[in-house]
From TrEMBL:
Belongs to the ABC-4 integral membrane protein family. LolC/E subfamily. It comes from the Bacteria. Residues 46-257 form the MacB-like periplasmic core domain. The keyword Ion transport does not apply. This is Lipoprotein-releasing ABC transporter permease subunit. It holds the Pfam family MacB_PCD. It is found in: Cell membrane. GO terms for biological process: lipoprotein localization to outer membrane; lipoprotein transport. Its main location: membrane. GO terms for cellular component: plasma membrane protein complex.
Length: 429
């Protein structure tokens, strides 16, 4: 009895995912002319998954780049924590800034006078935000000190001049060495009321941060000059604290409140920019959901393509079943057929997405030259260039999601093929 061939065949079925199953799945992927419609559906499924994965990688990378660049520029120039006075003015700002700068995790503490003014030249005029800082602190603000386009910040305190953004300089048609006129409504107090203060300043430097709102609105002047201009009488509005790690704000806030040794009001960059960064996060999540639908539609195409393939190959399936192929073998053949489309499409989308993301600025410049128009207006989008930062974790999430959808899409058609009755298939095939 042990030598019975039929029992030996029952004891030794074909190994799962054997070469036979892979060869058969490969033959089904290479359809003949009369099965061309199935091949067209498979092609569209492949293209859909490839484009969906590539688009997801590109969009998420650009959104990450936006967040990083905006965080670096907004927080980099404005500080991470803001210390304002309560009860009495910050006349002891020098000592307080010195104490705060010694806290672990604090890079520097910058006393600052801020005020609104109207800047004008012979060419134009507009509203600006004037900031008074010490020359030594000015050199430590990397966003400005490392991006000087004209002039210099050397001897900033003694120069009696101001540093302005490049876009403001273009708007007013000014350069280093020219004169800018600043007007503030809160000037000298007279018997007839408060008179506007008008004063001319030489432009000692022109900087370019790379964010249009800052480059078109910020004017920096020496701290003592700003105190005199805004009638501060030896105090400052705020002390801006810069941290080594912007995400460790809560720890630094407690240490700052203890080191202040006086009543202070402490706010941080998250509170000041909460709405802006929350909107970015919502937009990013919505874009992920919308673009995932592209992959889902492509996966549904895999289902329809495999169902048509199963119907077309019903006679072949019946013959294979009568020759001894198990239900599991038939199911695995069609699983391999459908999954191959999804996995190859995912890999191709990954390569295409990375290629475009890593060269997105060059592509934008090329398209701008080709169309003869500026496709990236920095005055509208805040940044001068398209930022992109690839997140390994997010890319892996996209790849896993696409492959999972592709595999799930093959389950029902494969199960249907495995459940096919050989007798009925041969009778009506």
């Amino acid at each position: 009895m042990s030598d019975d061939p039929s029992r030996a065949q029952t004891r030794d079925p074909t190994r799962p995912f054997s070469p036979f199953e892979w060869i058969l799945a490969g033959r089904y992927l290479r359809t003949r002319r009369r099965e061309g419609f199935v091949s067209v559906i498979a092609g569209f499924s492949f293209i859909g998954i490839m484009l969906g994965v590539a688009t997801l990688i590109i969009v998420l990378s650009v959104m990450n780049g936006f967040r990083k660049e905006l965080l670096d520029k907004i927080v980099g120039i404005n500080g991470h924590i803001f210390v304002a006075p309560i009860e009495r003015p910050l006349t002891d700002y020098a000592d307080l800034a010195e104490r705060l700068s010694k806290i672990v995790g604090v890079v520097r503490a910058v006393p600052m006078v801020e005020g609104q003014a109207f800047a004008s030249s012979q060419a134009n005029g507009g509203g600006v935000l004037v900031r008074g800082v010490r020359g030594s602190d000015m050199l430590k603000i990397g966003s400005i000190a490392n991006n000087i386009r004209q002039g210099t910040l050397q001897d900033f305190d003694e120069s009696g001049g101001v540093a302005i953004g490049r876009r403001l300089a273009e708007q007013l048609a000014l350069g280093a060495g020219d004169t800018i006129t600043l007007v503030t409504p809160r000037g000298a107090t007279t018997p007839f009321g408060t008179a506007p203060r008008v004063k001319n300043y030489p432009v000692t430097a022109v900087f370019e941060i790379g964010m249009s709102e800052f480059d078109s609105a910020f004017v920096y002047m020496p701290l003592t000059e700003a105190q005199a201009y805004f009638n501060r009488e030896g105090d400052v509005n705020v002390i801006e604290v810069f941290l080594a790690n912007a995400d460790r704000v809560d720890e630094a806030r407690q240490a700052i409140e203890l080191a202040a040794e006086r009543p202070i009001l402490v706010t941080d960059w998250r509170q000041r920019n909460r709405t802006f960064f929350a909107a970015l996060e919502v937009e990013r999540n919505v874009m992920f959901i919308i673009l995932t639908l592209i992959v889902l539609v492509a996966a549904l195409n895999i289902i329809s393509g495999l169902i048509m393939l199963v119907k077309d190959k019903s006679s072949d399936i019946a013959i294979l079943r009568t020759m001894g192929a198990t239900r599991g073998a038939i199911m695995r053949v069609f699983l391999i057929t459908g999954a191959s489309i999804g996995i190859v499409g995912t890999v191709a989308g990954f390569a295409l997405g990375l290629l475009i993301t890593l060269n997105i600025q060059s592509l934008q410049n090329g398209l701008s030259r080709l169309t003869g128009s500026n496709l990236w207006d920095p005055t509208v989008r805040f940044l001068t260039q398209i930022p992109a930062e690839v997140s390994v974790r997010e890319v892996l999430t996209v790849l896993l999601m696409a492959m999972t959808l592709s595999l799930l899409a093959t389950v029902y058609p494969s199960w249907r093929a495995a459940r096919l009755d050989p007798v009925q298939a041969l009778r009506y095939g």
